[in-house]
Amino acid sequence: MTWNASYARSVESDLTKLPAELRDRFISTLEQILANPFVGKKLKGSKDRYSVRMGRDFRVVYTVFKKERVIDIEFVGDRKDAYRWL
């Protein structure tokens, strides 16, 4: 069974701010998430929100909707901004 991805509008602007190397890394990270959405670290205080490292200092934060089989990408960027955002 396959998973579908959706993303917040802010993700587009987050991606344009990243260097090209990190944008390429995001694509491979997204492929990993779509293959197994539970690969990330489950975030405390949230039922279905996860975080995946994308390099040393960057994170992808997403929510898994199991019934719909949808992964909603919510944030892509520097880890310190990701945890402030939450």
What does this structure look like?
- The protein has 86 residues and is of the alpha+beta class.
- It has a single domain (4-85), classed as YaeB-like fold.
- It is built from three helices and five strands.
- A five-stranded mixed beta sheet has the order 1-5-4-3-2.
- A hairpin with a 4-residue loop joins strand 4 (58-65) and strand 5.
- It is globular, with a radius of gyration of 12 Å.
- The model has no long low-confidence stretch (mean pLDDT 89).
The structure class reads alpha+beta
Please name the CATH topology: YaeB-like fold
Arithmetic mean of pLDDT: 89
Number of domains: 1
Count of DSSP strands: 5
Q: β content, as a range? A: 25-35%
Shape: globular
List the secondary-structure elements in sequence, H or E: EHHEEEEH
Helix content: 25-40%
Characterize the biggest β-sheet.
5 strands, mixed
Give the name of the CATH architecture.
2-Layer Sandwich
What is the first-to-last residue Cα distance?
30 Å
CATH superfamily: RelE-like
Number of H/I helices: 3
Radius of gyration computed on alpha carbons: 12 Å
> Briefly, what CATH class?
Alpha Beta
Features:
86 residues, alpha+beta, YaeB-like fold, 5-stranded mixed sheet, 3 helices, 33% strand
Can you summarize this structure?
The protein is of the alpha+beta class. The protein has helices at residues 9-17, 20-35, 79-85; strands spanning 4-7, 41-42, 49-53, 58-65, 70-78.
